[in-house]
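2024-03-11 09:14:02 DEBUG pipeline.ingest accepted 1 chain
2024-03-11 09:14:02 DEBUG pipeline.ingest length=172
2024-03-11 09:14:03 DEBUG pipeline.predict start
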Amino acid sequence: NTAPTADFESIDPFNEAGSDKGVNLRLDARPSTDPDGPDDPLSYKWFDNEVQISTAQVTDYKFSLGWHDLKLIVLDGNNTPSEPRAMRFLVNDTLAPQLSGIPTNISKVSGSQAGAIISYPVPLTWDVVNGSGTPLATRGTGSIFPIGRTTVTFRAIDASGNITTATMDVNV
């Protein structure tokens, strides 16, 4: 009896999170082999960071954000284990949040040298990992804007530090 060989379909070393819970990846051990022939049944043990996560030949598993040490051990019908097949990969959040509802530029005439109170609809931000929110603005709605042009910058930042900015001009 010869030990089987554990093998699995390649997984990218860097994987983008699809939600706050991480990313769903397919684990496929069908490339594993047994030199004793196809009549020797194989069983499978998948591990994520030394915790067993599945015994299926092919399965989908949700990996959380962070580094993962994936390992597959294949056993033949005599429970002879293969050498582990392992790989390290990262699930991370590299996509910046999206901004929507950015107000159009605003022009207003004022009879006061102090400027004018300008109100505008507040934009929204959406991030696939962190959900919705309100971006920061360099000058908030309902503020007094001075005479001349003022550029308002909206900034959305997610928990991973990804940033999106957008601007609008206010002319008083």
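2024-03-11 09:14:41 DEBUG pipeline.report The radius of gyration is 27 Å.
2024-03-11 09:14:41 DEBUG pipeline.predict end
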